[in-house]
Design a protein that fits this description.
single chain; mainly alpha; 10 helices; 0% strand
Length: 204
């Protein structure tokens, strides 16, 4: 593993997830059925179960925790409005992450609401632990990676953000996209090769 590849995997936090806990699907189906019948408590429970994934995806995409929180709320609003269109092909959390991803892209098309990335990212650097110089270096590398991810073609960008930043399993992303897991892994390989090039490492 080269230095730039290490930046990619370390900043993302490891390999894509492979599976979910057994029993999650059944509870999710019950909550969705209750929500469809007007149970507000079911909506709250679904948010509790999925918020970490949706917010985590948006936090990494936009680099700003406050903006990510706003976009997460917008994501859930859109999801409740479009709930009748959820066909169950993938898990509800996977569907939510796609809505969140699209919500972020829509935000980018509203230039007057954007804040310079450098300023917002510097404002959210964690305060404790490593020294300031080390934190600044990590922040710069993370921002370079984020920009490189956003420059990928849409299919590769969604694949890599869903797997790493949304922490969705390969099988779930494949089901949502209507392709095989082999196709998703091929997309991921192409994405990582493109990111290595963008970050200055020769592909292997």
């Amino acid at each position: 593993m080269g230095p730039r590849t290490a930046i990619v995997t370390n900043w993302w936090g490891g390999a894509p997830r492979a599976a979910r806990h057994v029993g999650d699907d059944g509870e999710e189906e019950r909550l969705l059925a209750a929500l469809a019948s007007g149970d507000r408590a079911a909506a709250e429970r679904l948010v509790e179960r999925t918020y970490r994934e949706v917010y985590g995806l948006l936090r990494r995409l936009c680099g700003d925790p406050d903006l990510a929180a706003d976009l997460t709320q917008e994501t859930y609003r859109k999801a409740w409005d479009a709930l009748a269109g959820f066909d169950g092909r993938s898990r509800f959390s996977t569907w939510l992450c796609r809505i969140g991803y699209n919500t972020f892209l829509n935000h980018l098309r509203r230039p007057r609401r954007l804040v310079p990335l450098e300023e917002k990212h510097e404002a959210t650097v964690a305060d404790p632990a490593p020294g300031a110089d080390e934190r600044a270096g990590r922040s710069a590398e993370g921002e370079r990676l984020r920009r490189a991810v956003l420059a990928l073609p849409d299919d590769l960008r969604f694949t890599v953000t869903a797997l790493y930043w949304g922490e969705l399993p390969v099988r779930e992303v494949a089901r949502h996209e209507g392709v095989t897991t082999v196709a998703i892994r091929k997309r991921l390989k192409r994405a990582l090769q493109a990111l290595a090039l963008a970050l200055g490492e020769e592909p292997r």
